Amino acid sequence: MVRVTVPATSANMGSGYDSIGIALELYNVIDLEESDHIDISDKNGQFVPKDARNLIYQCAKRVYDECGKPLSGLKIVEDCAIPQTRGLGSSSACTVAGILGANALLGDPLDRQAVIDLAATIEGHPDNSTPAILGGFCVALLENGHVHQVRVPMHSAIDFIVFIPDFKLSTEKARAALPKTIAHHDAVYNLARAALLAGSLTTGQLENLDVATGDCLHQPYRFSLIENGEDVVRGAKELGALGAYISGAGPSIVAMVYKGDRDYLSRAQAMCAEKYPHWKAVQLRCDEVGATVKRI
Ligand code: HSE
Q: Are residues 175 and 116 part of one domain?
């Protein structure tokens, strides 16, 4: 049996739409072993498909198929802490778990880059799947089945406070809200900020983060789908965040804060309790390890 542990991820980080993401210290832990039938269970009693529609199973099967190996079934035990449809990379984590689990069961026929490419091809969001595999702060794009990626060192003075609502937003719906075309000046607005974001997170020029997380490609269109989303971003900044943005396709909101600001979390929790009872604030540090696989 193999155990795959995959971190949550926060994609886009405002300006880096479909290309920038970080891994966070919240994990899905998945055990897999070969079986003569499909046997899927969830340790936390969450709803997960228990048949061949299960995402982890489908991704594992894809690896078997691509390697030309027959698969009669898998025993999969899920222990998932990443909330579903909250913009924290839960489906990427399951995709990566299925691929890495199957790869390990088959004796590692896929190298690291092949895993990264397959995960992004299946999932469609290299800004989630790549940091889920590599950990840390990543820039990634998928072209012709290949992910061009770099894991960029991130300055150690940043903490992440994640505001998670009790309602869901599907990525499909959040993407359908976006326009098909954008103006040239909007493209320039974002590409300048995404470059500034990567440079500032690396060098620690944290005073740039508010401007660098600015975006006009996706967030303005998504706020209408997230009740109190704009209020939470504004409130997070008023509490002293360096920058705040919709995590992935939403609805969660991430605030980047100085590590030295030890009271930020309690101020954020007090704000939620007082003004936004459908939201909770939690601290999640950047995961520096990425997905791991071990035999148990
Ligand atoms: N970059 C993607 C989006 C992430 O914003 O739609 C989806 O998790």
A: no
Q: What is the pTM of this model?
A: 0.96
For residue 235, report the distance from its CA to the centre of ligand 1, in Å. 23
d(CA 272, CA 270): 5
Q: Please identify, by atom number, the ligand 1 atom nearest to the C-alpha of residue 92.
A: 8
In short, whether 171's Cβ falls inside 6 Å of ligand 1 is yes
18 CB near ligand 1 (under 6 Å): yes
249 lines ligand 1 (CB under 6 A): yes
Claim to verify: residue 140 and residue 172 sit in the same structural domain: no
Q: Is the CB of 175 under 6 A from ligand 1?
A: yes
Residue type, 182: I
| Nearest CA-CA partner of 225 in 182, 274, 150, 169 | 169
> Do residues 43 and 136 both lie within one domain?
yes
**Do residue 127 and residue 63 come from a single domain?**
yes
pLDDT tens digits for range 201-221: 999 999 999 999 999 999 999
Same domain, 65 and 191: no
Domain assignment of residue 232, given as a range: 158-283
What's the rounded Cα separation, in Å, for the pair 6 and 86? 16
Beta-sheet pairing, 292-295 with 146-152: unpaired
